Amino acid sequence: MTKPRSRVADYAVYMVVRVFVAFVQALSLRKAFALAGVLAWLLYRIDRRHREVALDNLKFAFPGQMTQSQREELVWGVYEHFCGLLMEIVHLPRKLHPQTWRRYVDLKDGCKIVDRLLSDRPLMIVTGHFGNWEMGGYILGLLGFKVHAVARPLDNPYLDDFLRSFRERTGQNVLAKKGDFEEMQSLLVSGGVLATLADQDAGQRGLFVDFFGRPASTHKAMALMALEYQVPIVVAVARNVGGPMRYEIISDELILPEEYSGRGDAVRAITQRFTAALERVVRSAPEQYFWLHRRWKHQPSKPRKKVA
Hints:
The chain is α/β, with parallel strands linked by helices and 308 residues long. The chain has ten helices and nine strands.
């Protein structure tokens, strides 16, 4: 039985977060990144559980390609990147405006994405926990595109409302991963745009496809909706190119559902294709990927031995 949440405790956590956000916003970006360095140093040393998860993930993802010291150095880079990412997210509302976004973002593959956004077909944008995924959605909103982001609501309702207000500041709309499926379907029927993170473990009932040479449980809803509603899938990420809030938007793959018409393995093939595209961008800058989460938490069940 799930223990009831304490509204007082949730509100106290929310207030601490709001005070921290206000403090970081009062800093210059340079000072905020100096704070990020201190925070990364601290977390790297005290967060042993996630550090070991990351080291284990890297051992499987790059077998025989890294020494232990190289893996440790890369994990340190991951902590450094994501603490900096936190500072960037806090500063986004004050730094990114219709008149300033070009200082921070290069739409390297912007034409590919914009062409699809301006077409008369619905679209799904697939990304992962790489670079700055929040910036990607924020920029599209600034440019006037209505994007519906699929996300799991936070357990703390005050923090969830706060994060939702940030995401919807530039015109995005947030849909719950569980509970808003009918709205997603209606959106695609009407030619709308869905954006989702596609590198989260889907449990034992997920579809297992190859990710860094290892079976990874992956949600198959994206492929199912692409086929049912004839929705193209664009794999896109915001990759840091050096320095605070310096990113390029790249589109690594365009998947057209009509290419899989009549194929019995269409769902698996599409899921594998966007997963492989995400792997390619992660390999381009592995320190920008969230290796701290258990991407390979579940593995395919072993077939039961028949009893003689």
